[in-house]
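Quick question: what would this complex look like in 3D?
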Amino acid sequence: MDRNDSGDDSEAAARNRRLVASLLDGDHRALARTISRIEDRAPGHRGLVSHLHPHTGDAHVVGVTGSPGAGKSTLVDKLAAAYRDRGETVGVVAVDPASPYSGGSVLGDRIRMGSTVGDMDVFVRSMSARGRLGGLSTATTDAVHALDAFGKDVVIVETVGAGQNEVDIVRTADTVAVVVQPGSGDDVQTLKAGILEIGDVFVVNKADMDGVDRLVAELEEMLHRRDAGGTAGSQFAAGAGGHHGRGLEADDAGTAESAGRRVDGTGSDAAGADGEWAPRVVTTVATAGGGIDDLVAAFDDHAQHLRESDAGAERALSRHAAEIRRLAREDGNALLDAEIRRRGGIASLAERVRAGETDPYAVAASIVGPIADCVDAARDGDDGGGETE
Amino acid sequence: MSADTGRERQRPIRCLIAKVGLDGHDRGAHVIARAFRDAGFEVVYSGLHRAPEEIVQAAVQEDVDVLGISILSGAHDTLVPKVVEGLEEYGAFADTLLIVGGIIPEEDRDDLREMGVAAVFGPGTPMAETIEFVRENTPIEPDESA
């Protein structure tokens, strides 16, 4: 990425200040523009988010995930309307996949957002995954920060629950809702594979279809086992990162972000310990608005739980930890990419390996070595980082 | 990779493809949305039967570079000005490329252009032509009207 904004640094900074001022002033265009800069990783966007940061933390962030067709967008639409009825303002970030072929995408979540159109106090933003790895979760979290700073009472993040990226995104929410629909056993299978652990509220949508009771029963049984510790505890918690606080340290692999959030879920190993949140199952018929009040009530209860127990603080901690790790990694990667480019680009390096002149290990060492030396040298002198900005 | 290519735009072109008014024919809008996607654009599709205010809301919130309105109902001369007004109200008109597609009689096209529509694409316009126009006329660096 083009990070060498040193030339127009002050100009970008002034622009950021103006943008932040307008955003805090309630200018929708400024909010939209801010999210674009965040999404584009435009020069200086870091400074932008960092200016916004002091104004964040007041919104209740709800993540909504589930398989395609489960009714997420419709549900989000009805939720937004319900919050508006209570006089609360709403921000929505809807993430859609991008085509791996052209990089383009058709973002269709807006089509379902029919209940609140014309109401500017519902700010809906569609985001494309743009095929980038990991970056999406940063962009999404930062967009949530922007909506939060703008003063939205509730921010809803909607993603397809397929893949680590998407799971990472909803994990950054205060309350995570997993949407499933009856009639496809596959959904419950999917849940087993990794989403079960992250849900605070499970929404059985399309509850007017056959098979609702069975699905609810299955879900409740799984959740019971998830919370009952013992066998199920190890089964699920193993993937979720083990013990209390582990999420903060477990930064080994690229998946560490995922381990980050679930401090609270792993806490539920200690089954039934008082003050634990017991995941809720709520049935809805989103198209007709059925069950939406129950769902909002469940979200409220969870928000209250976070406020009144340690879980809220823990969640915030692991969220910040994941954010720091992600940003640091991003900068590290940018540094490495620049080095690779400086050495003629990855293609020519690969060609040298193919031609038998060298091997990947030597190439990697030659790239990272000088950087490590610099870090060592800097550590001896001064601890000052920040050179990547 | 593309980051290496100098001053090229770093972001994909963002478009809103909108159906406005009571006309329920969206095949054209779908085809355009698909073609834009395949050209590497990010396309937000509005869905059918949108009021001008809804289009404006979507265009502002999504911060699109391009707003493509599809109209086959003949109501372009009342609907398009409302969209333009709305965009102006939010300070979003100047840096949004506004294009119109659908059934627009030849004699109305100049009026639309005067309102600020950059181009009108009628039936039979080759897809490549529309895409090329958008590529060439979308501002590389959105200005800082905010």
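Answer marked as accepted. The longest strand of chain B covers residues 14-19.
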